[in-house]
Structure formats: C-alpha cells, structure tokens
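so i finally got all the pieces together for this one. its two components total, 636 residues if u count the protein bits. some of the lines might not be protein, just check the labels. i wanna see the whole assembly predicted at once instead of chain by chain like last time, that was a mess tbh
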Amino acid sequence: MTLLSNRLTALFTILAALLVLFIAWPLVRTVTGSQPAVLWETLLEAEVRNAILLTFYSSALATVIAFFTGVPLAYLLARTDFPGKRWVEGIVDVPIVVPHSAAGIALLLVFGRRAFLGRALSSIGLRFVSAVPGIVVAMLFVSLSFLVDAAREGFEGVDPRLERVARTLGASPWQTFRRVSFPLAWRSILSGMILMWARGLSEFGAVVILAYHPMIAPVLLFERFQSLGLDYATPVAAIIIIICLVTFVALRFVAQERES
Amino acid sequence: MARQPLSEPPRARDVGLGHQPSHSPSALDIHDVHVDLKEFHLRGIDLQVAPGEYFVVLGPTGAGKTVLLETIAGLFQPHRGHILLGGRDITNTPPERRGTGFVYQDCALFPHLDVAANIAFGLKLRTDLSSGTVERRVAEMSQLLSIHHLLHRSPGTLSGGERQRVALARALVMEPSILLLDEPLSALDPETREGLQRELARIHGELNTTTLHVTHDFEEAVALADRIGVVHQGRIVQLGTPEEIFRQPASPFVARFVTVRNVFAGRLVQEREAGHTTFATDGLELTVVTDLLGPAHASIRPEDIFVSTEPIRSAPRNSYQGSVLRIADRGTLVYVTVDVPPAFVCGVTRYTLEEMALRPGSKVHIAFKPSSVHVF
C-alpha cells in the first residue's frame, strides 16, 4: 500500500468514526442516563407496560396483514410484467418518502368518522380514530414498503428454472409457490417482516394523528416529555431504545444466517 | 446391474381432450411449432421422435435449443403449431400434466432440500403413492444412478457430476414419457463428462426412456444419438443418423458446425499380448490409446494425419496406403481425402500439396499416432 492510500484510509476512518459516534453516543447516554432501579420502576408502571405491549401488538398485527397481502404483491412484482408495474412499484415505496404526519392526515381522510370508508366500517363496529385499528393502519401504511421490498428481493433471487422444474415434476402453480419459491425466499421475507415490525414500533407521526389514545410507547414518551419534563421522559426513552436494540440484534442475526 | 422393475404401471395422466390420432407411432410429434421470445425464436419446427429413441438436437449456443425443450415441457406456449406426446395433443396442457422429465445444464436442484427430498419431490406431490412406495422408488433410482450414498447430502456440497446424476434421478423417478436433457454434460470437466456420457447411454439402454438431448458438442451427439437434428437460427436444417450428418452435411453451416474430421463407428478390442487396444471399423484396424472396450467411436483430426508419396519410414502403428479421392482448398489448410478405404480427410499445407504434386488418383501413404485417435 502506498503512503497516500494509508493517509486516505486514516482520513476516512476518522470521518466514519465521527458518524458512528454520533449515532452511538446519544443512545448510550439515554440508556445509562437513568438508574437501573428507576428503569425497573418505570417498567412496573401499568401505563408504561400497557403502552409497550400495545405498540408490540399493533405493529405485529400490521406485519401480519402486510404478510398476507405484501408477499403476493412482492411475488407478482418479481415474476410478472404488467402495464403500470412501475407505477405500482413507485406507490409501494411512497410511504418511505411521505412525512409521516402527512400520512396520518391522509389516513384520517379515508378512515376518519366523516369519511365514507370510515363510516361504513364503524357501522360494523370497526372504529379507527382513537382506537387500536387506527394505530394498526398507521403502522401498516408507514412500514409496509420494507416487507414488500425485502420479499420481492427474495423472490427475485429464486432461479425461475427451479420453479419450471417443479412444474415438470407435477407441481401446480400453487404447489410450486408453496414448496419452492416461498421456502427459498423465506429468509428475505422474514428479515423484511422483522424490519417492518421494528419500523412499526418506532412510528409516532402517523399514529399520533389517528389515535393519540390508546397510547403507544412513542406517544407516551412524547406526553411525559411535554407534561412532566426530561427526567420523566428519559427512563421511558431508555426502555424503548433497549427494546429496539434487541429487535435490531435479532434482525442482524437472521440476516447473518441467511448469508451462511 | 440386476434391478427390480419399477412396480407402478406408467401413470395414466389426464391430458385433456386433445385429438388422439391412433395411427401416430411417435413418442413425440412436433408440427410446425413457432415460438417467439425476446431473445429466441423457433420457426416452423417439425420433429418426430420414435418411442425409446435417443434423439439429439445439435446446434450452436443461441440457436433456440433450450426454448425448444421448454416448449415441449409446456413452460412456453407456442403461438403456432401442435405438440403431440404419445399421440395426444398436449399443446395446451399445463406442464404439470405433461409427464416430461427435465434436466437443465446447471441441474436446478432445489437448494433447500437434500438429495433424497429432491428426488422424491415429484412423487410426494402424488396422492396415490404411499410414503413407503416413494421411499422405495427413490432408493431404486438412486441405486441405478449410483448416488444412494449421497441421499442425505445437501445439493450445495455435491460435485458437478453428482449434481447431474441427482437431477437425472429426480426426472427419471417420475417415469416420464420423454426425458428432456438441456446440455447435461456441458458444465462438467472432461473426465466427469466422459463418465456421465457413458452413464447416459447405459441408463438409456436399461430404461429405454425416449430422450431428447440438446447439445452444441458434435462428439457428444455422435456418441449418444440414434438420430441427430441440427438446429440453426430457430430451424431444423438437417435430420439424420450421425453418419449421415457428418458424411453428407446438407449445408455449409452444418459442414462448418460439425467441422471436417474423421469419425468412425466401430468396436474396441483389447490386444492382450501386444499390450494395446485396437479399434476395428470397416475392415480396418486402428491402434488407439484408451481404457474403454466395446462399441465406440473414433475421431482423428485431419491435421494429425501425415501424408507422403513415399512409404513412411519409422512409421507409427497406424500406417496405410490409399488413393486421393478429392482435394479441397480451405484457406489455411488443404483437405485431401484419401480412400484406404474408408476415406480419411487429411490436412496438408499448400506447400506440401505442390511439393508432392497430388491430384485425384495419386497413390499416397498416410500415418497417424495412436494418441491422435480420440475414442469416445
């Protein structure tokens, strides 16, 4: 290696380290900012526990809904050509670029009490505003892109000839999907699901517009900060960060297994 | 190898209501099939393959050979023409109800299943077979292909030759009405390739499954085929036995593709006392270097044959006398056909040709080394 590239490596290392530190420092500061006893006490509060459980549950429900609709969509995008395919691809990724509070307003205009669909659904007992279904659709909206994109990549990685061979061996199109395409794309789909779930957990903007109550963890954190101040918000933030880190580690674990 | 006959009768498959001409004796009958894909086209393919026949489709890369196989398997829909399998029109039958066996060049083994599950894949989809029957048939087929010791391995850990055997077993265990082989030997190293080529011949001899094999390799085609169809730009340009194709190429393309060479069909005999192997063809014996025995083919490149007007001193073992039949100037080399008989095409330089003043009818001596004879 030449002197110049050694210098360049050193420079890049310093710049990169700054960025990594920028991420890690605030997180570590928050997690270590409260005494473990205070964290434990906070976790024992029914309000906090319920908020966390509701967050997990709602995000998981959104992920399940996206699994049953997003996996077929991903397969179609990976395997077929149809007019308007690029539009559909674009629409699927729009939630990533739309500000999430704007997404919340958009959902309110469809699922709100005055909207046609919202009224129709509330007549069969499904209410969205200030209710769990509202939290679920908000999370679904802002995080489904992650699952669809990952599943699609997974299906694109399956050699179409494996599916063709399966057909010649007597498998129907469904059996081929069920026994060849799906199992081979499963790792990607699973990592997309974990990513989507984690993204749903962290959602605030869209949820807060549709359903301030019942409170999910990020909304609870916001409320503590607003009404009680930093000292009361920090333990909640620490707990949320710890939970998200655990999710993240699980995701990396799945991704690593995929490589090997 | 003594083997239990597979006890299930061949499957009666529901292939729809296509017309069924009872007079058709062909296992496969392709009428005027046209396929249009982005990169490949088939134009008016007409082809009949007899029951039990080993038919080789020979053509350069990109000639549409794979598309032809995939069309027969039902993976592409022809936009014109008919395909009959065992006399039934299957043009509009979905692939899973055609009963074709398919082997791709890269095997396309299911990476998430072990070898046994790969072979059992098709059988397990059938509701009429007990798990015991499935297991027995997988065991029988893996015995036949000598892969029974690999049953619990994952496809990723297999060598190229082993993968190809597993892919063959997976297709053959279904007792297909036709076996479609897409360049099955092309991805293998020369040694494995020769072994598997002999295996293909042996298995065909044993099961007598009608086979359609596509390749770009002329020697592979000659070694295996009952008949060859040469494909060029989506059309079949010549049909015939291997001998017909290389003795009378129907077009300059076929001649160029099969290249000028000497190919003989014959028999290998071990000469114990002399310590070498003899290849006997048309009353002529060639000394060759090989471990093979029995029916085989031999080829000699024209440029490996030495031509002289004088008797050749210190002659190698293969030394013959004959007369010049014709002389063809091909640019870099001049091809002199010498009738011994049989006729040998020999490559000489233009200088040598003038020096020896060769013309049709000239008496010449030819010689070549045993190691120059390629036996296959």
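Chain A touches chain B at residues 159, 161-162, 164-172, 175, 179-180, 183-184 (CB under 8 Å).
Chain A has one domain: 34-259.
anyway lmk what u think
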